[in-house]
Amino acid sequence: MARRARWIRLGCVDTREFHAACAGLSGSQERAIAPIVLWGCSKAPVDGLVSEDEREYLFAVIAPAQRAPGLSARWVSWALSPAVAAYRDFGLRAYLNGANICLHGRTIGRSHAELIGDCVVIASTLKASLEGGALFDAVPHRSPEFRAWLREGLGLAMTQWGAEGNAPTERAFEAALRARIEAQHGWQFESAWPTAREQAAIAEARVELREPMFCESDTRGMAGAAVAGAAVDT
């Protein structure tokens, strides 16, 4: 039987605000909460490690500790295996190496796991491109049948890709990841926003971090109740 889970889409956020959302959401949960996945993207440098033209996805799993593996050493692989599978859906032979996702020996995702309150939090950056799109240069040419299968399976329009090395759209990659998480963990996602209690907890965490909440272009529709997401490097 599928278990209810919440998918919170953040839009364009900075990484410190991603920290605030992770801390606020996890610290304000009851013991038997539905798992939460945060999803966002950032075009700004992440902790000084990437250049302005690199695209980064920000991804976090927040789940009750009793739903995560008992050994903390397994938390990262439990949370990030669907991300590896999503990369492979697009022909990239990604793999886990400790807390990192790698491709041909190069790190394309960094993560960090911790226990906050009664929740396990695994937060990660996931690269969508390297050096202006070179990440998907690693994708071999795919047949028209394969591309048609992806379009049908994801139900989303995709950018040109294959030998040209173009990445899938953010929505296409997000949909692939969401489907992989549902399949692996038996969760059924509903799109959601933080509750008033969660918003207050995020605001408190934001004050502690002393950073602006959102990119200005992404405040629309939130009525001042901003949400953000955080990616943590190891």
Write up what this structure looks like.
With 234 residues, this protein is α+β, with helices and mostly antiparallel strands. It has a single domain (3-218), classed as Bira Bifunctional Protein, Domain 2 (BirA Bifunctional Protein, domain 2), CATH 3.30.930.10. The chain has 5 helices and 8 strands, in the order E-H-E-E-H-E-E-E-E-H-H-E-H. Strands 4-5-6-7-3-2-1-8 form an 8-stranded mixed beta sheet, with helices on both faces. Strand 6 and strand 7 (119-127) form a beta hairpin. Helix 1 packs across helix 5 (196-209) and helix 2 packs across helix 4. The longest helix has 16 residues, at 170-185. Mean pLDDT is 74; it is low at 48-53, 131-139, 153-165 and 211-234.
Feature tags:
5 helices; 25% strand; single chain; BirA Bifunctional Protein, domain 2; 234 residues; disordered C terminus; alpha+beta
Note the topology.
Elements: E1 3-12, H1 15-27, E2 36-42, E3 56-64, H2 75-89, E4 95-97, E5 100-103, E6 106-116, E7 119-127, H3 144-154, H4 170-185, E8 187-191, H5 196-209
Parallel strand pairs: 1-2, 1-8
Antiparallel strand pairs: 2-3, 3-7, 4-5, 5-6, 6-7
Helix pairs in contact: 1-5, 2-4
